[in-house]
Amino acid sequence: MSVAAEGAPQDNFAIAKDYLVQHAKRRDRLYLQRAYRIARDLPEKAITVSGEQMRTAKLRLLLEILKGVHTEIDPKFKPETPPSSYPRLPPEASDLDMGVHPSAISDPIIRQKYIDAREENRKAIEAYLTELDLREWQREILELLSSLLERRFSGKERTEGEKVIKSAKLDSAIEAELLNGKR
């Protein structure tokens, strides 16, 4: 059961919107994640939020979250080039095995270089995994949006969904994917 399941849909919608505001102010991805968890579980029935049907409000909210996730993604990321599992040893310690504990390096200057290289490598691995997670999350949101469009914006409601998507000012490739129903 999600956080959103406990309150009224209108209250949960307001909470999710507030999390988006907090994300914009603080650039903390945790707020984006919280908004998504709530938005994902909002009902799509004929409830109104600020004079708008919940399905449309949910669509707008998910599109805002998608934009937030998209801005977090590094466009230069290359998933086919992951960082090394271990940092390179300083040339002065090339006689040691990769992955050796820093305490095995007796020279304090060389040891510190290696400690610094380990920290840089740890950060590179963390950034790589974060990028993979963001791209997977973006794909999940796109699938949820596609499903919402198919279920709640089919037939004569399709135009309404398309207008909401076009007004969201998404990346052109993402907008085309949603409008053309390609996954």
Brief summary:
The protein has 183 residues and is mainly α.
Describe this structure in words.
- With 183 residues, this protein is an all-alpha fold.
- Helix content is 62%, strand content 2%.
- A two-stranded antiparallel ribbon has the order 1-2.
- A hairpin with a 2-residue loop joins strand 1 (48-49) and strand 2.
- Helix 1 (9-26) packs antiparallel against helix 2 (29-40), helix 3 runs antiparallel to helix 4 (108-152) and helix 3 packs parallel to helix 5 (158-167).
- The longest helix has 45 residues, at 108-152.
- Residues 1-5 have low confidence and may be disordered.
Labels describing this entry:
mainly alpha; 183 residues; 62% helix; 6 helices; two-stranded antiparallel ribbon; 2 strands
